[in-house]
Write a structure and sequence with these properties.
about 525 residues; alpha+beta; Arc Repressor Mutant, subunit A; Nucleotidyltransferase, domain 5; 4 domains; six-stranded antiparallel beta sheet; five-stranded mixed beta sheet; about 45% helix; disordered C terminus
Length: about 525
């Protein structure tokens, strides 16, 4: 059997003459390495092999140290400085390594030229030769890219620079939905004054198997269980009424409950109300481990795509100051919140759903049609109850007249009946965008509305954040914070807010947030029979 060490590799590239010369050299070295030898014998071996005496001595030293004198060991042994060995003094190498780690790899992100000057000064102080910029740059390029990105640009940059072998494969629709929030890279304007307000939030839910967007929500509300619940409610429900309200004629055939909702570890996704609302419908939740953003890569890539498209909008922030340059995003802003929602609808339903996805080999809409063939969505038995389940909850004491919450008294026939039956505590759900009505859990586990005991005919119901704002202001001004007189205080606070909105961006944002919340909780218009749950498929 032939020795595998002597086959293939560089030996195949040698000519007959080169091979014969190396064979003679290897035999001479093997002979000398086994016994004492004279200088004359070394010179004779060098002459026969056609190399210098120094080369033979190096071969002998290597043979004694490594015990190898094969032809392959001699192939490619070229003269000159050994490849891969640093020409710098070890102390200079240590200075470069220390400066790159402590100075260049920092959140301040100094340029490499500054680090080069730091290295030069340190070497001069130690009376060492100063390395040049290209030399230092080569040392930097040998460092792990993920380490460099993480130390300079943070955890997300490190994740993006880290190789992740394999993929998360889901083949059946509804098996796994991913949900996430992001702040849109665009500044919107006040609907009436058209002055800049700020950046809204976008919540997106995606079906992993088909990459279809199953629901999204655009508003000024920050990430919360309300955002997550509103987007999920839209994802589960039939889209006909929503599309008709916005005047859109796109196909959006997604509805029904998923088997699993996959998210990061944000507080709203870990809330008891969120988990129980989904568990009540037989939906599992999965929170990916901290620092494992790549586990949600499908939703992250989609959000990145949407934010990339935002760069073409008036008022786009371009993601970072360097990309923005001298452009003033606030002065360029032109879209209000409703127009931005419509723009996202066109981008998602019109463009994204009908664009070939590289991972699918077809469009998300085609993937949905193909993979859902023969399958039927699992819908909530009580769609309205499911929507209310996703609201945050509170517990209050029942009295003969009803109950108290958010500085108001609430009453209903069901609340009176619950008190008469001996219930002392009531579990309630509320929509943070409309505190004029709460939802009381009945003995049968259903939700029934409980409204203000003294009706408010102004139509300007408070949201949760505005209630807190008006309450703080009332205390400063010495106004009532509870009861019927508190309504007058809230109206006064709203008038002050509208007055400040003329000159204050923060006040304009608050006014627009209040307007959008109220419009979102208005009773929807009556729908045609074709928009009912029965005609979905």
């Amino acid at each position: 059997m032939s020795d595998p060490a002597l086959t293939g590799g560089d030996l195949e590239m040698l000519s007959e003459e080169q091979f014969a010369q190396l064979a003679a050299r290897a035999r001479g070295i093997a002979d000398l390495a086994t016994r004492d030898h004279t200088v004359f014998e070394v010179e004779l071996a060098a002459e026969r092999a056609g190399v210098s005496r120094a080369t033979v001595y190096r071969d002998l030293q290597r043979a004694r140290g490594e015990g190898r004198t094969t032809i392959r060991d001699l192939v490619g042994r070229k003269g000159g400085f050994p490849k891969g060995r640093s020409r710098l003094h070890p102390h200079v190498e240590a200075v470069i390594a220390e400066a790159l780690t402590s100075h260049y790899l920092s959140p301040n992100k100094p340029p490499l030229t500054d680090t080069t000057r730091v290295i030069g000064a340190a070497c001069a102080k130690l009376d060492l030769p100063e390395p040049r910029y290209p030399t230092i740059r080569r040392r930097l390029l040998k460092m792990k890219r993920a380490t460099v990105e993480g130390r300079r640009n943070g955890r997300k940059a490190r994740e993006a620079a880290t190789a992740r072998p394999g993929s998360y494969q889901i083949e059946t629709p509804w098996d796994c939905w991913q949900i996430d929030h992001t702040r849109a890279d665009v500044i919107i304007v006040h609907k009436e004054s058209r002055k800049p307000v700020g950046r809204p939030w976008l919540t997106v839910i995606i079906d992993v198997a088909t990459r279809m967007v199953v629901g999204f929500y655009v508003s000024l509300e920050p990430p919360s269980i309300l955002r997550a619940g509103t987007a999920l409610d839209q994802a589960v429900q039939h889209k006909g009424p929503w599309l008709k309200q916005l005047g859109l004629d796109y196909r959006w055939p997604v509805e029904g409950l998923p088997k699993l909702v996959h998210s990061d570890r944000a507080g709203e996704f870990q809330s008891r109300a969120f988990e129980r609302a989904l568990a009540n419908q037989g939906v599992e939740t999965f929170l990916r481990a901290a620092g494992k953003a790549h586990w949600g890569g499908h939703i992250e890539r989609l959000i990145g795509t949407m934010m990339g498209k935002c760069k073409m909008l008036p008022g786009a922030t371009q993601g970072n100051p360097k990309a923005r340059g001298d452009y003033d995003a606030s002065k360029g802003a032109a879209l209000d919140i409703d127009q931005l929602e419509l723009w996202f609808a066109h981008q998602i339903l019109g463009v994204y759903h009908n664009t070939v996805h590289s991972a699918l080999g077809c469009t998300p809409l085609e993937a949905w049609d193909r993979k859902t063939a023969g399958l039927h969505p699992r819908r909530p038995e009580d769609p309205e109850g499911f929507r209310i389940d996703l609201f945050p909850e509170i517990t209050r004491t029942l009295t003969r007249t009803g109950l108290k919450a958010f500085g108001e008294e609430y009453a209903s026939e069901d609340a009176t009946l619950a008190y008469a039956e001996g219930r002392g505590k009531a579990r309630l759900k509320y929509d943070p965008r409309n505190l004029s009505v709460l939802h009381l859990e009945t003995a049968k586990g259903r939700w029934t509305p409980v409204r203000y005991r003294l009706p408010d005919y102004s139509g300007r119901h408070p949201t949760l954040w505005f209630y807190k704002y008006a309450r703080r202001l009332a205390r400063v001004l010495g106004a009532p914070v509870e009861g019927i007189l508190a309504r007058a205080a809230r109206e006064k606070a709203e008038e002050l807010l509208h007055g400040e909105a003329i000159s204050s961006r923060i006040a304009r944002q608050a006014v627009e947030r209040l307007r959008h919340a109220r419009s979102a909780t208005e009773a929807p218009p009556a729908q045609d029979e074709d928009d009912s749950w029965g005609g979905v498929l």
